[in-house]
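@channel anyone free to eyeball this complex?
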Amino acid sequence: MKLKDTMRENISGYIFIAPQIILFLVFLVYPIFEGIRLSLFKINYQSETFIGLANYGKLFEDPIFVKSIINTLIFVVFIVALTVLFAMFVASAIFDKNAKYVSIIRGAYYIPVMVSMVVMSMIWSFLLNPSNGLIPFLARKMEMSVNFLGDTHWVLPVIIFVTFATNVGQAIILYIASMIGVPKELFEAAEVDGASRIKVIFKIILPMVKPTTIYIIIMNIIAVLKIFVVIQLLTGGGPNNASTTMMYYLYNNAFKYNQLGIASAVGVIMFIITLLLSVPQLRAMLKKD
Amino acid sequence: MFKNNKMKREKYDVIANIIVIFFAICSLFPLYWLVTSSFKNSVDVVKMPPDWFPQTFTLSNYVDVFNNQPAFKWAFNSITVALVATIALLIVSSMAAYAFSKLQFKGKNIIFIIFISSLMIPKEVMIVPLFRIIQDLGMVNTLSGMIWPNVATAFGVFLLKGFFDTIPDSLREAAKMDGASEFRIFFTIMLPLVKPGLGALFILNFVNVWNDYLWQLVVGQSEDSKTLMVGIATLMQDLNPNFAYKMAGAVVGAIPMLIIFVLFQKYFTRGITIGSDK
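replying in thread with the prediction:
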């Protein structure tokens, strides 16, 4: 009787997870292995020739790919740093104020996230348009003649700023929630000691929200790693490949130049990076269970 | 915190909040510019110095968007893709999350660990093999092709398992004693108890799929299968040089999400914070 029960529960368990696991195998696991396989082949429409690691070799000889790695790295470092620091600053300034105020400020920073990168990229491309955009107009007023998207020195900072401004709302929401959860007793103790607010922020709040900080950093690194929309819609990777990224490079090779082997190799490299980056977060999550 | 001594609100606090408010306004400014530009005529929209407050008001840009472009079709496609993907995800991931949380079966832990390890891997990095699968399944230029890869994510299970874990096992055992089947227990007892989790997952996933631009761009190449995000992005390359027209398209792309945000703000905050609290 007992044995029959365990059997039955085994079977129900498998039935319950089956639909999700099948989708997982077909659309996630299989593509990973297939991607690794494709990256070792030269692919021409119908024919596939095994060429070992030659695609990877070719990639690292291509100055545009190297540029795309450097750019992606620059984006990751600056966008993530800006996002974390600014979100910390905003959240620590408002989290203990009245609920209405918190929700208005939070909403103001979150609406650009909601509205999506596609729409925000369209707005920024209008704002930055050299001939009739608002920002070049204001720059000219201040005696600055800058082509923000057409100048190789300006294009990276501009993309960093636009991406940061569009996405920081998410980190702000996370920090506010986490800071509201810090036990009140800690603040009361600090108050008795007469600690200044800056001191409270650095000595109590920031250490207490460290898990949130790690989470935000990892999620943002992975999000910026696959940065694509803003590149395609604002710069098209230009000028002269100055703003190309790994995801944009992958997309072009796969769907414009029909270099599927090369594109797969880029995908594999990106897959390994994301997997390594997600290890600390996964470890923390599994420990909790 | 310092609620009881409002008297000595610190200088730092005041300055910090002024800065926060200032940037909050800055953060909304592009949207203000978007909306007001979309109501300007083609001359005023590029006038320099600009009209900070629109002097003319015309709806013709919106009329053009809906006349020249199949914007309703795009919106219909976007809503279908986001809705079907999200409902399917709610069903499959709530079942799996329940099993991982409450049922005992062989290999449970190892399957769960492998499955959850995929949580942070964006499907975009495997876009080439994924596209080939869609090709083999004959799903190019179909909404199904945009939907199913989005149901394969581990995010739903990750989010819902936390909710199932808080339900005491005794509830299930009691129902078992009464002779209820596993499916009955799941649908009539367990699912109603995780409603807040389902709500949060619904919103988060709906928005994710709605904004799944790159994948929709790749799968939906025909006019009929374009989604709203892909469609309005093509307006950027449109021969029509009128910026007000492009901005009206962008507004059309933004409105559905803004409505959802206003209606469900509570769920957003809850859903987004779930992954991070330890």
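from a first look: The two ends of chain B are 22 Å apart (CA to CA).
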